[in-house]
Specification:
- This protein is an all-alpha fold and about 425 residues long.
- About 70% of the residues lie in helices and about 0% in strands.
- Helix 5 runs antiparallel to helix 17.
- The two termini are about 40 Å apart.
Amino acid sequence: MIKYNFRAIHPLILGIILWMIKPPSGLDQESYLMFIIFSSTILSILIKAIPMSTSVLIGLLLSIITNLLSLKDALLGFGDSTTWLVVIAFLIAGVIIDTGLGKRIALICINLLGKTVTGLGYAICASELILGPLVPSNTARGGGIIAPIVDSISRSLGSEPQKDPEIAGEYLHLVGAHANLITAAMFLTGMAANPIISRAALEVYGIEFGWSTWALGGIIPGLIGLTGLPIFLKYFSRPTIGSIENVRDDIKLRIKELGQWAFREIAMVVTLILMLSLWATKSFHGMGTTTVALFGLVILLILNIATWDQLVKNYKAWDTLIWLGGLLTLATGLKSTGFISWISESMKSSLEGMEPFILLILLAIIYCYSMYIFSMLTAHIVALGSTIMVVASGTDLNPFLVVGIIAYLSSLCGCL
Protein backbone atom coordinates (compact mmCIF):
# COMPACT_ATOMS: atom_id res chain seq x y z
CA MET A 1 0.00 0.00 0.00
CA ILE A 2 1.38 3.41 -1.02
CA LYS A 3 1.77 5.84 1.88
CA TYR A 4 1.33 9.49 1.11
CA ASN A 5 3.13 12.20 3.07
CA PHE A 6 0.42 14.83 3.47
CA ARG A 7 2.94 17.28 4.91
CA ALA A 8 4.09 17.78 1.33
CA ILE A 9 0.96 19.82 0.60
CA HIS A 10 1.54 22.26 3.48
CA PRO A 11 3.60 24.63 1.29
CA LEU A 12 0.78 24.55 -1.29
CA ILE A 13 -1.73 25.42 1.43
CA LEU A 14 0.48 28.29 2.61
CA GLY A 15 0.76 29.58 -0.95
CA ILE A 16 -3.01 29.46 -1.48
CA ILE A 17 -3.70 31.25 1.81
CA LEU A 18 -1.18 34.00 1.02
CA TRP A 19 -2.58 34.34 -2.51
CA MET A 20 -6.09 34.82 -1.12
CA ILE A 21 -4.81 37.66 1.05
CA LYS A 22 -4.40 40.95 -0.75
CA PRO A 23 -0.83 42.27 -1.09
CA PRO A 24 0.16 44.78 1.61
CA SER A 25 0.03 48.46 0.75
CA GLY A 26 2.87 49.51 -1.54
CA LEU A 27 3.67 45.97 -2.73
CA ASP A 28 2.74 45.13 -6.31
CA GLN A 29 1.26 41.81 -7.40
CA GLU A 30 4.45 40.56 -9.06
CA SER A 31 6.61 41.12 -5.97
CA TYR A 32 3.96 39.53 -3.76
CA LEU A 33 3.76 36.44 -5.96
CA MET A 34 7.55 36.09 -5.84
CA PHE A 35 7.36 36.27 -2.06
CA ILE A 36 4.67 33.55 -1.98
CA ILE A 37 6.78 31.21 -4.11
CA PHE A 38 9.91 31.89 -2.02
CA SER A 39 8.06 31.42 1.30
CA SER A 40 6.42 28.20 0.15
CA THR A 41 9.79 26.87 -1.01
CA ILE A 42 11.42 27.69 2.33
CA LEU A 43 8.55 26.00 4.21
CA SER A 44 8.94 22.91 2.05
CA ILE A 45 12.64 22.83 2.90
CA LEU A 46 11.93 23.22 6.62
CA ILE A 47 9.37 20.42 6.92
CA LYS A 48 11.50 18.09 4.76
CA ALA A 49 8.49 16.32 3.25
CA ILE A 50 10.28 16.10 -0.09
CA PRO A 51 13.99 16.41 -0.98
CA MET A 52 15.37 19.94 -0.80
CA SER A 53 16.39 20.02 -4.46
CA THR A 54 12.88 18.96 -5.48
CA SER A 55 11.40 21.83 -3.44
CA VAL A 56 13.73 24.33 -5.08
CA LEU A 57 13.10 23.04 -8.60
CA ILE A 58 9.34 23.35 -8.04
CA GLY A 59 9.87 26.93 -6.88
CA LEU A 60 11.93 27.71 -9.98
CA LEU A 61 9.32 26.13 -12.26
CA LEU A 62 6.53 28.19 -10.69
CA SER A 63 8.63 31.36 -11.11
CA ILE A 64 9.09 30.57 -14.80
CA ILE A 65 5.51 29.64 -15.70
CA THR A 66 4.17 32.71 -13.87
CA ASN A 67 6.56 34.87 -15.95
CA LEU A 68 8.35 36.18 -12.88
CA LEU A 69 11.62 34.83 -14.25
CA SER A 70 12.73 33.87 -17.73
CA LEU A 71 14.30 30.44 -18.17
CA LYS A 72 17.67 32.09 -18.68
CA ASP A 73 17.37 34.10 -15.45
CA ALA A 74 16.11 31.05 -13.55
CA LEU A 75 19.33 29.21 -14.40
CA LEU A 76 21.72 32.01 -13.44
CA GLY A 77 22.13 30.76 -9.89
CA PHE A 78 23.69 27.52 -11.14
CA GLY A 79 26.55 29.49 -12.69
CA ASP A 80 27.08 31.76 -9.70
CA SER A 81 30.58 31.72 -8.20
CA THR A 82 29.10 31.37 -4.70
CA THR A 83 27.27 28.21 -5.73
CA TRP A 84 30.41 26.69 -7.19
CA LEU A 85 32.52 27.62 -4.17
CA VAL A 86 30.16 25.60 -1.99
CA VAL A 87 30.09 22.70 -4.47
CA ILE A 88 33.89 22.60 -4.65
CA ALA A 89 34.00 22.80 -0.84
CA PHE A 90 32.01 19.58 -0.60
CA LEU A 91 34.19 17.92 -3.24
CA ILE A 92 37.43 18.83 -1.45
CA ALA A 93 35.99 17.81 1.93
CA GLY A 94 35.15 14.42 0.46
CA VAL A 95 38.74 13.97 -0.75
CA ILE A 96 40.15 14.91 2.66
CA ILE A 97 37.97 12.27 4.30
CA ASP A 98 38.83 9.69 1.64
CA THR A 99 42.61 10.18 2.00
CA GLY A 100 42.35 9.74 5.76
CA LEU A 101 44.13 13.06 6.35
CA GLY A 102 41.38 14.50 8.54
CA LYS A 103 41.33 11.38 10.71
CA ARG A 104 45.11 11.43 11.10
CA ILE A 105 45.14 15.11 12.15
CA ALA A 106 42.39 14.53 14.71
CA LEU A 107 44.14 11.46 16.18
CA ILE A 108 47.47 13.31 16.43
CA CYS A 109 45.80 16.20 18.29
CA ILE A 110 44.12 13.77 20.68
CA ASN A 111 47.39 11.93 21.27
CA LEU A 112 49.24 15.18 22.06
CA LEU A 113 46.60 16.91 24.18
CA GLY A 114 44.27 14.19 25.43
CA LYS A 115 45.94 13.27 28.72
CA THR A 116 42.79 14.03 30.71
CA VAL A 117 39.12 14.23 29.76
CA THR A 118 39.45 18.02 29.63
CA GLY A 119 42.51 17.53 27.46
CA LEU A 120 40.37 15.46 25.11
CA GLY A 121 38.06 18.47 24.90
CA TYR A 122 40.99 20.70 23.95
CA ALA A 123 42.17 18.10 21.43
CA ILE A 124 38.76 18.23 19.75
CA CYS A 125 38.95 22.05 19.64
CA ALA A 126 42.48 21.93 18.21
CA SER A 127 41.39 19.46 15.53
CA GLU A 128 38.51 21.74 14.54
CA LEU A 129 40.81 24.77 14.49
CA ILE A 130 43.29 23.05 12.15
CA LEU A 131 40.63 21.56 9.88
CA GLY A 132 38.27 24.58 10.01
CA PRO A 133 39.85 26.69 7.25
CA LEU A 134 40.88 23.62 5.23
CA VAL A 135 37.69 21.55 5.15
CA PRO A 136 35.14 24.00 3.73
CA SER A 137 32.12 22.13 5.10
CA ASN A 138 31.35 21.98 8.79
CA THR A 139 29.02 19.02 8.15
CA ALA A 140 31.81 17.00 6.55
CA ARG A 141 34.31 18.18 9.16
CA GLY A 142 32.13 17.42 12.15
CA GLY A 143 30.05 14.49 10.95
CA GLY A 144 32.60 12.84 8.69
CA ILE A 145 35.84 13.31 10.63
CA ILE A 146 35.51 14.44 14.26
CA ALA A 147 32.21 12.88 15.38
CA PRO A 148 33.13 9.25 14.56
CA ILE A 149 36.37 9.59 16.53
CA VAL A 150 34.62 11.25 19.48
CA ASP A 151 31.95 8.54 19.46
CA SER A 152 34.60 5.81 19.41
CA ILE A 153 36.49 7.40 22.31
CA SER A 154 33.29 7.77 24.33
CA ARG A 155 32.40 4.13 23.84
CA SER A 156 35.94 3.09 24.79
CA LEU A 157 35.39 4.95 28.06
CA GLY A 158 32.18 3.00 28.66
CA SER A 159 29.95 5.94 27.79
CA GLU A 160 27.18 5.38 25.24
CA PRO A 161 24.17 7.53 24.26
CA GLN A 162 21.71 5.21 25.99
CA LYS A 163 24.04 4.00 28.73
CA ASP A 164 26.07 6.19 31.11
CA PRO A 165 26.46 9.25 28.82
CA GLU A 166 27.53 11.27 31.86
CA ILE A 167 30.80 9.35 32.14
CA ALA A 168 32.35 11.34 29.29
CA GLY A 169 30.36 10.95 26.06
CA GLU A 170 27.86 13.75 26.67
CA TYR A 171 30.65 16.20 27.52
CA LEU A 172 32.86 15.29 24.57
CA HIS A 173 30.00 15.46 22.06
CA LEU A 174 28.95 18.87 23.40
CA VAL A 175 32.49 20.15 23.00
CA GLY A 176 32.66 18.73 19.48
CA ALA A 177 29.34 20.23 18.39
CA HIS A 178 30.09 23.70 19.73
CA ALA A 179 33.72 23.75 18.57
CA ASN A 180 32.49 22.85 15.08
CA LEU A 181 30.22 25.89 14.97
CA ILE A 182 32.86 28.23 16.42
CA THR A 183 35.35 27.29 13.71
CA ALA A 184 32.57 27.50 11.12
CA ALA A 185 32.13 31.14 12.17
CA MET A 186 35.85 31.92 12.20
CA PHE A 187 36.60 31.36 8.51
CA LEU A 188 34.85 32.09 5.22
CA THR A 189 35.67 28.51 4.25
CA GLY A 190 34.63 27.15 7.66
CA MET A 191 31.04 26.51 6.61
CA ALA A 192 29.63 25.85 3.16
CA ALA A 193 26.99 28.59 3.33
CA ASN A 194 29.34 31.35 4.52
CA PRO A 195 30.00 32.57 0.95
CA ILE A 196 26.31 33.50 0.73
CA ILE A 197 26.92 36.14 3.40
CA SER A 198 29.97 37.41 1.53
CA ARG A 199 27.88 37.65 -1.63
CA ALA A 200 25.11 39.55 0.19
CA ALA A 201 27.67 42.02 1.57
CA LEU A 202 28.80 42.81 -1.97
CA GLU A 203 25.22 43.18 -3.24
CA VAL A 204 23.86 45.27 -0.35
CA TYR A 205 26.86 47.38 0.67
CA GLY A 206 29.23 47.02 -2.27
CA ILE A 207 32.02 45.85 0.04
CA GLU A 208 34.19 42.76 -0.25
CA PHE A 209 34.00 40.66 2.91
CA GLY A 210 36.53 38.11 1.71
CA TRP A 211 38.57 35.34 3.33
CA SER A 212 41.19 37.54 5.02
CA THR A 213 38.64 40.09 6.26
CA TRP A 214 36.42 37.32 7.63
CA ALA A 215 39.35 35.64 9.40
CA LEU A 216 40.71 38.93 10.76
CA GLY A 217 37.41 39.67 12.48
CA GLY A 218 36.76 36.13 13.71
CA ILE A 219 40.17 34.78 14.77
CA ILE A 220 40.54 36.46 18.19
CA PRO A 221 36.94 35.88 19.45
CA GLY A 222 37.12 32.36 18.00
CA LEU A 223 40.37 31.51 19.79
CA ILE A 224 38.97 32.87 23.05
CA GLY A 225 35.84 30.78 22.57
CA LEU A 226 37.78 27.59 21.82
CA THR A 227 40.10 28.19 24.78
CA GLY A 228 37.25 28.55 27.25
CA LEU A 229 34.84 26.02 25.75
CA PRO A 230 36.10 22.75 27.35
CA ILE A 231 36.20 24.33 30.82
CA PHE A 232 32.91 26.18 30.41
CA LEU A 233 31.00 23.07 29.33
CA LYS A 234 32.26 21.11 32.34
CA TYR A 235 29.91 23.21 34.47
CA PHE A 236 26.93 22.03 32.40
CA SER A 237 27.95 18.44 31.77
CA ARG A 238 30.64 17.36 34.22
CA PRO A 239 32.25 14.06 33.17
CA THR A 240 32.46 11.52 35.98
CA ILE A 241 35.38 9.49 34.63
CA GLY A 242 38.81 9.51 36.25
CA SER A 243 41.65 7.97 34.25
CA ILE A 244 41.58 7.74 30.46
CA GLU A 245 44.79 5.75 30.00
CA ASN A 246 43.01 2.94 28.16
CA VAL A 247 41.88 5.44 25.52
CA ARG A 248 45.37 6.86 25.10
CA ASP A 249 46.70 3.38 24.38
CA ASP A 250 43.91 2.88 21.84
CA ILE A 251 44.69 6.21 20.13
CA LYS A 252 48.37 5.33 19.81
CA LEU A 253 47.41 1.99 18.30
CA ARG A 254 45.07 3.64 15.79
CA ILE A 255 47.77 6.11 14.74
CA LYS A 256 50.19 3.19 14.29
CA GLU A 257 47.61 1.39 12.15
CA LEU A 258 47.48 4.38 9.80
CA GLY A 259 51.13 3.74 8.99
CA GLN A 260 53.53 6.24 7.45
CA TRP A 261 52.27 9.36 5.74
CA ALA A 262 51.18 8.39 2.23
CA PHE A 263 51.89 10.49 -0.86
CA ARG A 264 48.19 11.36 -1.16
CA GLU A 265 48.13 12.74 2.38
CA ILE A 266 51.32 14.77 1.94
CA ALA A 267 50.16 16.14 -1.41
CA MET A 268 46.79 16.95 0.15
CA VAL A 269 48.46 18.91 2.96
CA VAL A 270 50.64 20.87 0.51
CA THR A 271 47.63 21.66 -1.69
CA LEU A 272 45.54 22.82 1.27
CA ILE A 273 48.34 25.03 2.61
CA LEU A 274 48.75 26.52 -0.88
CA MET A 275 45.01 27.23 -1.06
CA LEU A 276 45.04 28.74 2.44
CA SER A 277 47.97 31.00 1.49
CA LEU A 278 46.26 32.14 -1.70
CA TRP A 279 43.01 32.90 0.16
CA ALA A 280 44.89 34.98 2.73
CA THR A 281 46.90 36.93 0.13
CA LYS A 282 44.21 37.82 -2.39
CA SER A 283 45.19 41.50 -2.24
CA PHE A 284 48.53 40.61 -3.87
CA HIS A 285 47.46 38.27 -6.67
CA GLY A 286 43.75 39.09 -7.16
CA MET A 287 42.52 35.48 -7.38
CA GLY A 288 39.00 35.15 -5.95
CA THR A 289 37.99 32.60 -3.31
CA THR A 290 36.19 30.38 -5.82
CA THR A 291 39.08 30.57 -8.30
CA VAL A 292 41.52 29.42 -5.62
CA ALA A 293 39.18 26.57 -4.63
CA LEU A 294 38.91 25.48 -8.27
CA PHE A 295 42.69 25.73 -8.60
CA GLY A 296 43.11 23.42 -5.60
CA LEU A 297 40.57 20.93 -6.94
CA VAL A 298 42.30 20.78 -10.33
CA ILE A 299 45.65 20.12 -8.61
CA LEU A 300 44.07 17.21 -6.73
CA LEU A 301 42.84 15.78 -10.03
CA ILE A 302 46.15 16.29 -11.86
CA LEU A 303 48.13 14.61 -9.05
CA ASN A 304 45.55 11.80 -8.95
CA ILE A 305 44.87 12.48 -5.29
CA ALA A 306 41.24 12.43 -6.38
CA THR A 307 39.76 10.83 -9.47
CA TRP A 308 36.88 12.20 -11.49
CA ASP A 309 34.85 9.06 -10.80
CA GLN A 310 35.34 9.70 -7.07
CA LEU A 311 34.11 13.29 -7.41
CA VAL A 312 31.10 12.24 -9.46
CA LYS A 313 30.03 9.88 -6.67
CA ASN A 314 29.98 12.76 -4.15
CA TYR A 315 26.21 13.20 -4.47
CA LYS A 316 26.07 15.81 -1.68
CA ALA A 317 28.12 18.21 -3.77
CA TRP A 318 25.96 17.87 -6.87
CA ASP A 319 22.77 17.95 -4.83
CA THR A 320 24.05 21.23 -3.36
CA LEU A 321 24.55 22.61 -6.87
CA ILE A 322 20.83 22.18 -7.52
CA TRP A 323 19.29 23.45 -4.31
CA LEU A 324 21.77 26.24 -3.58
CA GLY A 325 21.84 27.52 -7.16
CA GLY A 326 18.05 27.52 -7.21
CA LEU A 327 17.73 29.21 -3.82
CA LEU A 328 20.12 31.97 -4.86
CA THR A 329 18.00 32.53 -7.98
CA LEU A 330 14.79 32.76 -5.93
CA ALA A 331 16.45 35.11 -3.43
CA THR A 332 17.68 37.27 -6.31
CA GLY A 333 14.12 37.21 -7.68
CA LEU A 334 12.88 38.80 -4.46
CA LYS A 335 15.31 41.63 -5.03
CA SER A 336 14.68 42.07 -8.75
CA THR A 337 10.89 42.21 -8.33
CA GLY A 338 11.22 44.87 -5.64
CA PHE A 339 10.14 42.86 -2.58
CA ILE A 340 13.41 43.41 -0.68
CA SER A 341 13.33 47.17 -1.25
CA TRP A 342 9.67 47.27 -0.15
CA ILE A 343 10.28 45.41 3.11
CA SER A 344 13.38 47.51 3.74
CA GLU A 345 11.47 50.76 3.34
CA SER A 346 8.58 49.44 5.45
CA MET A 347 10.86 48.47 8.32
CA LYS A 348 12.85 51.67 8.11
CA SER A 349 9.70 53.77 8.45
CA SER A 350 8.49 51.75 11.43
CA LEU A 351 11.90 51.87 13.11
CA GLU A 352 12.51 55.54 12.36
CA GLY A 353 13.89 57.39 15.33
CA MET A 354 15.57 54.35 16.86
CA GLU A 355 19.27 54.66 17.64
CA PRO A 356 21.28 52.83 14.93
CA PHE A 357 23.29 50.78 17.42
CA ILE A 358 20.13 49.75 19.31
CA LEU A 359 18.61 48.78 15.96
CA LEU A 360 21.66 46.66 15.17
CA ILE A 361 21.40 44.85 18.51
CA LEU A 362 17.70 44.24 17.91
CA LEU A 363 18.33 42.90 14.40
CA ALA A 364 21.13 40.67 15.70
CA ILE A 365 18.85 39.22 18.38
CA ILE A 366 16.08 38.60 15.83
CA TYR A 367 18.52 36.99 13.40
CA CYS A 368 20.10 34.79 16.06
CA TYR A 369 16.98 33.49 17.76
CA SER A 370 15.01 33.09 14.54
CA MET A 371 17.22 30.04 14.04
CA TYR A 372 14.73 28.17 16.25
CA ILE A 373 12.32 28.32 13.29
CA PHE A 374 14.78 26.78 10.84
CA SER A 375 16.14 23.26 10.64
CA MET A 376 19.38 24.14 8.84
CA LEU A 377 21.85 27.01 8.79
CA THR A 378 21.82 27.47 5.01
CA ALA A 379 18.04 28.01 4.83
CA HIS A 380 18.30 30.50 7.69
CA ILE A 381 21.04 32.46 5.90
CA VAL A 382 19.26 32.50 2.53
CA ALA A 383 15.94 33.54 4.05
CA LEU A 384 17.10 36.30 6.40
CA GLY A 385 20.79 37.17 5.93
CA SER A 386 20.54 39.71 3.13
CA THR A 387 17.19 41.05 4.44
CA ILE A 388 18.75 41.97 7.79
CA MET A 389 21.60 43.71 5.96
CA VAL A 390 19.18 45.65 3.77
CA VAL A 391 17.28 46.92 6.82
CA ALA A 392 20.52 47.99 8.53
CA SER A 393 21.84 49.62 5.34
CA GLY A 394 19.56 52.60 5.87
CA THR A 395 21.57 53.66 8.93
CA ASP A 396 25.03 55.18 9.28
CA LEU A 397 26.40 52.02 10.88
CA ASN A 398 29.74 50.76 9.60
CA PRO A 399 28.97 48.17 6.89
CA PHE A 400 31.78 45.89 8.08
CA LEU A 401 30.30 45.89 11.60
CA VAL A 402 26.86 44.91 10.30
CA VAL A 403 28.17 42.24 7.92
CA GLY A 404 30.55 40.89 10.56
CA ILE A 405 27.81 40.42 13.14
CA ILE A 406 25.54 38.68 10.63
CA ALA A 407 28.43 36.58 9.31
CA TYR A 408 29.52 35.25 12.70
CA LEU A 409 26.02 34.78 14.07
CA SER A 410 25.10 32.77 10.98
CA SER A 411 27.07 29.82 12.37
CA LEU A 412 27.03 30.58 16.10
CA CYS A 413 23.22 30.62 16.21
CA GLY A 414 23.42 26.89 15.49
CA CYS A 415 24.61 26.45 19.09
CA LEU A 416 21.04 27.13 20.15
